């Protein structure tokens, strides 16, 4: 009997770009929420008595459960075992719940409760609002990282052998647009209702994002149904096994790319959280103008990432791109650290941000499409989970390290700001040198990755698109 040929949904260009648009828009809202209070450091210090250490801890709390409770590893396993639809819905709901808690922490409704009084009664240098916000943000962190790995695996499912790096680049571009939007909109929201108003808007956006994930799951179900028709069964060797985790953590390519990932991103996302205040003090401008300059950072990355993705699809050179990215990362942080404030004008600031934005396109655009070349598809979700877990260790520790370095290298400044003394600013030389140090190490790791690639033949320098 002849089997009826089925044209898979992912063979349709329109269908796969619609699928990409749905999941990417949710990532736009997710990234918006990640940095929703990033430009409000000094407002939080004045209104809520959050010191730079407390602010740094908030940045780290996003990753706390992922790292210490191994949620990212679980998320990867859940993704491989339970599939894309279940994991996307779980991720979307988790983000909404965590964001809701963070919003509540900043409201007067919470400040007036006995619970707030109890939370404020221990470790008193961390205000009750911050403690509850940490919990909310840690729960949100589980959701956003789970969403990140699921979206990556979803793109591989729809685009492998086609425009995979371009699609990943576009998804990241849309997510970066969320970061741009946050630096533009959050100060405006906060002007009309304080930081809690900004967080409320972030929460509303996440609810819309959840609905978009839900809509996508219908497309995913249709594709799976078609794949079931054409594949009939999955053989046992194609199924994920827990022992695959060992294979991931002993794969030299995976280890090299993970080390590069944690070093690179440690000089990107934690920087983003401190960048507004750093530029405000270095340029001697108000927070709103500084936030507007920082917004060029994700915008630069947003514009370039899809082009680099396209280049990788047709030409390759993924490992080399990561090395170039590490060089630009180091150069830009050295400029922030070493050019004296007198010679550091708006033009230098924007140019340096553009250099950093270029690094922020080169590395992610080449890193994420490289992973499917290093590990097998059946444990790809777990591999994304594991690399994000390693990365999250850095993203958790580095903001705390930077907050501490900032206070230690600026004795007495934190106390004066909390007391409302006008015109007092931090000097960011030491934190910026730390970021530059990560760049140097990432550069070295880039060469290690190239060596490992040559030895194991992963094909990281080869194009993604099948001719
Ligand atoms: N503060 C956002 C953290 C997202 C981290 C995520 N694990 C990730 O690396 N995503 C890829 C990217 O380049 O944004």
From TrEMBL:
Name the Gene3D superfamilies for this protein: MFS general substrate transporter like domains (1.20.1250.20)
Compartment(s) of residence? Lysosome membrane
Please tell me whether the keyword Magnesium is annotated for this protein. no
Kindly list the residue ranges recorded as spanning the membrane. Answer: 14-34, 54-79, 86-105, 117-144, 165-186, 198-218, 253-271, 291-312, 319-338, 344-365, 386-406, 433-452
Q: Tell me what topology the record assigns in the membrane.
A: Multi-pass membrane protein
UniProt domain Major facilitator superfamily (MFS) profile: residue ranges: 19-454
Show the GO MF annotations: transmembrane transporter activity
| Keyword entries, A-Z | Lysosome, Membrane, Transmembrane, Transmembrane helix, Transport
Q: Which InterPro entries match?
A: MFS (IPR011701), MFS_dom (IPR020846), MFS_trans_sf (IPR036259), MFSD1 (IPR052187)
Source domain of life: Bacteria
One GO CC annotation, please? lysosomal membrane
Question: Catalyzes what?
Answer: L-alpha-aminoacyl-L-lysine(out) = L-alpha-aminoacyl-L-lysine(in); L-aspartyl-L-lysine(out) = L-aspartyl-L-lysine(in); L-alpha-aminoacyl-L-arginine(out) = L-alpha-aminoacyl-L-arginine(in); L-lysyl-L-alpha-amino acid(out) = L-lysyl-L-alpha-amino acid(in)
State one Pfam family annotation. Answer: MFS_1
Keyword Transmembrane helix among UniProt keywords = yes
Q: How does it assemble?
A: Homodimer. Interacts with lysosomal protein GLMP (via lumenal domain); the interaction starts while both proteins are still in the endoplasmic reticulum and is required for stabilization of MFSD1 in lysosomes but has no direct effect on its targeting to lysosomes or transporter activity.
What does the sequence similarity comment in the record state about its family?
Belongs to the major facilitator superfamily.
Main function: Lysosomal dipeptide uniporter that selectively exports lysine, arginine or histidine-containing dipeptides with a net positive charge from the lysosome lumen into the cytosol. Could play a role in a specific type of protein O-glycosylation indirectly regulating macrophages migration and tissue invasion. Also essential for liver homeostasis.
Which named protein is this?
Lysosomal dipeptide transporter MFSD1
Native species: Lentimicrobium saccharophilum
For this protein's source organism, the top of the classification is:
Bacteria, Pseudomonadati, Bacteroidota, Bacteroidia, Bacteroidales
